[in-house]
Every structure is written in structure tokens, then in C-alpha cells.
Amino acid sequence: MTTPKPPAETGSTREAAPEGTATRRTIGLAVIGGACVFAATAAVPALVFVAAPLAKKGGESRWVRTVRLEQLAEGEPKRVAVIDDRTDAWTRERGVDLGSVWLVRQGANVLALSAVCPHLGCSVNTAPVIKDGFACPCHTSAFDLEGRRTSGPSPRNMDTLATRIDDGVVVVDFQRFRIGVPEKVRL
Ligand code: FES
């Protein structure tokens, strides 16, 4: 009785395994390569998104037209809205209400004061009696008509803003400042 011999391995069978392995490896590399390309493609806009605001310079002047000089009564504070276009790295909005400022006419000049309280950022109003200046409703900081602190926890005076008169219109360099610190630091 003869023992049956296992079927002889053919050359093609022995070569099929390495070819399959190579194919799988090639496919794997292609998938990884594709994933890397996809990740890089997705990462570029994300990096631009993150980096763009950093590229924007802070503290640049923003001259905004407000009211005509003759609309201001001598020594009487008037609150005016600051309306201007707002542009960030991606969009531009027209006629946006950016905040408000207090204007006090002093003869031919105008004193402009930020309406943001330097303490914690509440909106400063006029004092109950206007000649007394300004008062913050949040923690009772008070300021005289020139924005100098007279009482309360505000760490500094109200923040003054540069002004100029263009063709009879009061133009203000609208800025924001760090709150809660004694120094006037432009943001
Ligand atoms: S926010 Fe104005 S006194 Fe505190």
C-alpha cells in the first residue's frame, strides 16, 4: 500500500502569497498616504483660521464720525453711538453699532471719553446731577466732567479718546482698553 503524496506545490502557488502581501502593503501605503494628504489639506485652512486673528494688528486707529459740533452744548455730556464697519479676517459687516462714547464740548474742542467703566466694563452714565460728571451703576465709581475718578473702585480715570473736527463733525478715534488695571492699556 502506498502512502498518498500531498499535492505538489506549484510555482504559481508559492508566488501568490508574496504578491498578495505586496498588494496589501501597497494598498495600505496608499491609504496612509491618502490620509496624510487629506489631513494636510484639512489642516491648512485650520491653521489659517487660527493664525489669521493673530496676524491682525491691535490698537490701530479707528476714526469714526459722530455728531456735528453744534449739536453739543458747552460742558454738557452727550452720549453718542459709534457706528462703523466691522472687519475681521473673513467678513466685513457694514454699519455695526460698536459701542458708545461720551462727548463733552469744551469751546472749540471736544473731550471724548470711553463709556466703558475701567473697573469691570459696565456702561458709565452721567451722574444724577450732570455737573457732577459721570457715575457707574455697577459698583458706584464716580468721575468728574473730565473723566477723573472721584470715588469708587475704578482703578483709573475714564479713558480719553483722541478727537478732531472735520468739516464741523466730531471725529473720534474709537478704542478699547484693558479693564481692571491702573494703567490705560489699549487693546
Ligand atoms: S464696573 Fe464700574 S464701578 Fe465696577
What does this structure look like?
The protein has about 190 residues and is an alpha+beta fold. The protein folds into 2 domains: about 10-55; about 65-175, Rieske [2Fe-2S] iron-sulphur domain (Rieske Iron-sulfur Protein), CATH 2.102.10. The protein contains 1 helix and 11 strands, in the order αβββββββββββ. The strands form 3 sheets. It has a 4-stranded antiparallel beta sheet, with no helix packed on it. The termini are far apart. The model is unreliable at about 5-15 and about 45-55 (pLDDT under 50). Bound molecules: FE2/S2 (inorganic) cluster. FE2/S2 (inorganic) cluster binds near residues 119 and 122. FE2/S2 (inorganic) cluster (FES) binds near residues 117, 120, 138, 139 and 153. One of its GO terms (cellular component) is membrane. It holds the Pfam family Rieske. This is Menaquinone-cytochrome C reductase iron-sulfur subunit. GO terms for molecular function: 2 iron, 2 sulfur cluster binding; metal ion binding.
H and E string: HEEEEEEEEEEE
Helical/strand content category:
alpha+beta
Major beta-sheet overview: 4 strands, antiparallel
* Name of the CATH architecture of the largest domain: 3-layer Sandwich
Give me the CATH superfamily of the largest domain.
Rieske [2Fe-2S] iron-sulphur domain
**Biggest sheet, strands in spatial order?**
2-3-4-9
Small molecules bound in the structure, each named once:
FE2/S2 (inorganic) cluster
Average predicted confidence as pLDDT: 82
Strand-residue fraction?
25-35%
Q: What is the level 1 CATH name of the largest domain?
A: Mainly Beta
Please mark out the parts with pLDDT under 50 across 5 or more consecutive residues, or reply none: 7-14, 47-56
Mind telling me the C-alpha Rg?
34 Å
| Helix proportion | 10-25%
